[in-house]
Amino acid sequence: MSKLKAITAIVLIAEAEKLFNNYPDLKEVYLTADGQGFYEKEKAENHAAYLENKEVSFFKREEVLTNNEAPKTPANEADTTPPEQGEQTNEDENAEVSEAEAERASLLAMYAEKFGKKAPHNIGLEKLKEALRED
């Protein structure tokens, strides 16, 4: 096996391991040379037809995840330590997001009342405020 094929095989095995860790119900996967994963062989072959390297590799969960490894979770020391003083926590971020959502919802209701129709779904907050200021 050439050095390039060996490197490609290592990369594909690592990609298969990621897929199996992210999708615990996945039993087998077909990977193309560019690292795209597919459940069905036909779809992998169709994708590979457009690649320079048309090989499709097949991996089974048992072969890739040896010793019955469980899916890895990112539980490291940084995840378990409490935040430092002054650091923003997820709760603070969620509170800010919910306040912004509440403000947007009230502005959308005011827009609908003023103009008799719903505001465009993708209108920005600043444009929404500007439209409500205008007569």
UniProtKB/TrEMBL annotation:
Residues 89-100 have a biased composition (Acidic residues). Residues 64-102 are annotated as: Disordered. Residues 78-88 have a biased composition (Polar residues). It comes from the Bacteria. This is Uncharacterized protein. It comes from Ornithobacterium rhinotracheale (strain ATCC 51463 / DSM 15997 / CCUG 23171 / CIP 104009 / LMG 9086).
